[in-house]
Write a structure and sequence with these properties.
alpha+beta, Calcium-transporting ATPase, cytoplasmic transduction domain A, Calcium-transporting ATPase, cytoplasmic domain N, 4 domains, 7-stranded mixed β-sheet, 22 strands, ATP-binding, ATPase_P-typ_TM_dom_sf, metal-binding, cell membrane, translocase
């Protein structure tokens, strides 16, 4: 707390207490002197505050407070002045506390910016200050270091450019390609030639944009000041009317005393601080009361895609296998060799195999080629994994590769091809998947009255529009640079109160320019956390819904306190103007009004943003999700069979369908039956209501129906194979079953995730 807030509060409190003590011993002269001395610091602070407000062409509630204290001192009502001064000083202290967290320097952005570079000098690598780097210098970027300045590569490099572009995929770069400052080297060390100094590089430009955007945004207006003009006019009218009626200055003072707008000054910061406290308990850091007020008025939300709507890291989507090869074998071999690589894609493949409880072999003779792939031996076989170009050097492309590559490109995914002993046996498809809580979060945001949901992303248009269609956002803005995002936010602010949610350095300018910037702080860049007004300390998007609910209910409580306090103050002014309320009694009555509105404001501490009556243990949720991971091979078998049916020899169709029915009977159907009978009743009790699982249980029945129909049709396939119409019907059933099972598992995962969150 700065001295300008602490000193008046301490002086007014001590002087009032000491004055009352002296008055009790009959030393009234000393008491009046102490009360006067205690009121003077508050009077001076109010005068300075009013002058500054007038320079900004603003009118606040401080004018009435200044007149009331000054008038009380002029009439010799020092005790009244001291009581008013204490109320005002305590109110300012609370208000300062509410806004103190808003004054954040962007130290983290600067702290995480590259500070040094490794420059080649006199035949050796030397660590130099970043400002000493000039265009043409030969630089070395080690693993885990950020590229210090813009330049061009002289080696192969693997770069995580998500902080600048927003795309989660690791980008392989070849010698001669340009590289920007601020990107992370996730591969082996590489050399580069500087093309610009630090001040002229990309990262420094983003820092300047953040600073400019923060300076261009006007400070939040205090909620109390919005009603100051009306309140002052009414108070002066009552005071003037009482003086004209009887000419009694004591009545005028009494009116001004009860008109001192402490309900405005005290109730609002108390409610705001309480709301901020509730947000903090939900893992949401709100940096100031102004941010909470603006969040309550939000009408448009802009989201970055990567790391915000999606998880920000690659996850297994599907396994493509060559005819005669099991998908689990493809994944197991790829993961076995991938264990020896620190590449994030290799780690994702290995994690997917372990989730399926596949037994991995220990690789040997491993050679990793930066930006391409890995070769080695697994169980005595020569294995290669990596990009299509890399694996094609040791294995001839197969007919399925073309369609697979096209599908990967459509979906904006990554692919790891696998070859064994010179034969391409399959590929693993990976993608940055939508967060489990994202669909629910967006639905709840719509329920809270958010009119626009806009997705901003650096991804290609086709990829961005696919994700946008899945989520049901109102607008999609693809291929966005940091400057584009900044311009979009500035344009939207002309029509609405805008919230921007992001997690990377590339989002920092837009976060700073928005009315409310929200950073995914748990894994987001420090730059975005410092540029934002709100930080989600828990890496879950649905916490933003909690923050929005708390903000709106907090603002409603604050408004209730303001309206109630002003109503009581108006009533007291009328009584004082009629001569039935002397100044000191009016000051004490004002204290009672203050207590009432503060108690009402403290209701914000009891705000509960969630509505779920029960919760699911995290271990139980993880176990249930693991059950879905174990169904992965079955789902892939369904889709693979549907794809291959037209190409299969007619006499082999019946056997393939029989194996499929056996797999469904052994794994899928028992799993869904167990869920319907054993799991769903417990979930229904957690969720509340008469039959909350009805729709999910209906999906089970549809799965059972499709599985039974497939079994019945298989029993009637003639030995020579089905005719063309029957074959199409089999394909239709298999594709329908694949789609509904995948959708059902995704819905259950989202439900499990939400019930864990309820706890």
């Amino acid at each position: 707390m700065p001295w300008v807030t602490f000193v008046p509060l301490l002086a007014s409190a001590l002087s009032l207490i000491a004055g009352l003590a002296f008055a009790g011993f009959g030393r009234s002269a000393v008491a009046h002197a102490l009360w006067t001395l205690g009121a003077v610091p508050v009077l001076l602070v109010l005068a300075v505050s009013i002058v500054r407000a007038l320079r900004r062409h603003e009118a606040g509630v401080d004018v009435l407070a200044l007149v009331a204290i000054g008038f009380a001192l002029a009439l010799g009502e020092s005790l009244t002045a001291a009581v008013i001064a204490l109320m005002l000083a305590s109110g300012r202290a609370l208000e300062h506390y509410a806004h103190a967290r808003a004054q954040r320097e962007m130290t983290a952005l600067l702290a995480h910016a590259p500070r040094h570079a490794n420059r080649f000098e006199a035949g050796e690598w030397r660590r130099v200050e970043l400002d000493d780097v000039q265009a043409g210098d030969r630089l070395l970027v080690r693993t885990g270091e950020f590229v210090p300045v813009d330049g061009s590569l002289t080696d192969h490099a693997e770069l995580d450019e998500s902080t600048l572009t927003g795309e989660a995929a690791i980008q392989p770069r070849r010698p001669g390609e340009a590289v920007q400052s601020g990107v992370l080297n996730v591969g082996p060390a590489f050399e580069m030639v500087a093309a610009a100094s630090a001040g002229d590089s990309t990262f420094a430009g983003i820092v300047r944009m953040v600073q400019f955007a923060r300076e261009a945004r006007s400070p939040a207006e205090r909620l109390a000041d919005r009603y100051a003009v009306l309140f002052m006019i009414a108070a002066l009218f009552f005071a003037l009317a009482s003086w004209l009626a009887v000419g009694d200055l004591a009545r005028v003072l009494a009116v001004l005393v009860v008109a001192t707008p402490c309900p405005l000054i005290l109730a609002v910061p108390v409610a705001i601080v309480s709301g901020m406290s509730r947000c903090a308990k939900r893992g949401v850091l709100v940096k100031g009361g102004g941010a909470l007020e603006r969040l309550a008025q939000a009408g448009a939300l802009f989201f970055d895609k990567t790391g915000t709507l999606t998880g920000g890291h690659a996850r297994l989507v599907a396994v493509e296998s060559a005819p005669g090869t099991a998908s689990d074998d493809v994944l197991r071999i790829a993961a076995s060799l991938g264990q020896a690589s620190a590449h994030v894609i290799s780690e994702a493949v290995t994690m997917a195999a372990r989730e399926r409880h596949l037994a991995l072999a220990v690789p040997s003779s491993v050679i990793e080629r930066a930006g391409a792939g890995v070769t080695g031996e697994v169980d005595g076989h020569a294995v290669a994994i990596g990009s299509f170009a890399h694996v094609s050097e040791v294995a001839a492309p197969q007919p399925w590769c073309t369609a697979f590559l096209q599908r990967v490109a459509y979906e904006g995914a990554s692919a790891v091809f696998v070859a064994v002993d010179g034969v391409m046996i399959g590929a693993v498809q990976l993608a940055d998947q939508i967060r489990l809580e994202t669909p629910r979060a967006l639905r709840l945001l719509r329920q809270e009255g958010i009119r626009r949901l806009v997705m901003l992303t650096g991804d290609r248009r086709d990829v961005a529009e696919t994700v946008g269609a899945m989520l049901g956002v109102t607008e999609v803005m693809p291929e966005q640079t940091p400057a584009d995002k900044l311009a979009a936010i500035q344009a939207a602010r002309r029509d609405d109160t805008v919230v921007m949610v992001g997690d990377g350095v590339n989002d920092a300018p837009a976060l700073a320019a928005a009315d409310v910037g929200v950073a995914m702080g748990a894994r987001g860049a420090a730059a975005s956390s410092e540029a934002a007004d709100v930080v989600l300390l828990v890496d879950r998007l649905d916490r933003l819904v909690d923050a929005l609910r708390v903000a709106r209910r907090t603002r409603r409580i604050a408004m209730e306190s303001v309206v109630a306090g002003m109503t009581l103050s108006f009533a007291a002014m009328a009584v004082a103007a009629a001569g039935y309320l002397p100044p000191l009694a009016g000051a004490l009555l004002q204290e009672f009004i203050d207590v009432a509105v503060i108690l009402n404001a403290l209701r914000a501490l009891r705000i509960h943003p969630g509505t779920a009556p029960g919760s699911l243990a995290r271990d139980d949720a993880d176990r249930l999700k693991a059950g879905h991971a174990e169904l992965g091979p079955v789902m892939e078998q369904i889709r693979t069979l549907a794809d291959e049916l037209p190409r299969m020899p007619p006499h082999a169709v019946a056997a393939a369908l029989t194996r499929m029915n056996e797999s469904l009977a052994q794994h899928l159907v028992p799993h869904e039956q167990h869920d319907d009978i054993e799991l769903y009743p417990g979930l229904a009790q957690l969720m509340g209501g008469d039959d909350p699982m009805a729709a999910m249980s209906g999906t089970h029945r549809e799965i059972f129906r499709l599985a039974r129909m497939l079994k019945q049709m298989t029993a009637h396939v003639p030995p020579e194979g089905p005719d063309a119409a029957s074959l199409r019907e089999f394909q239709r059933l298999l594709y329908a079953l694949d789609a509904i099972v995948r959708l059902h598992c995704a819905q259950e995962d989202e439900l499990f995730h939400a019930l864990v969150e309820a706890g």
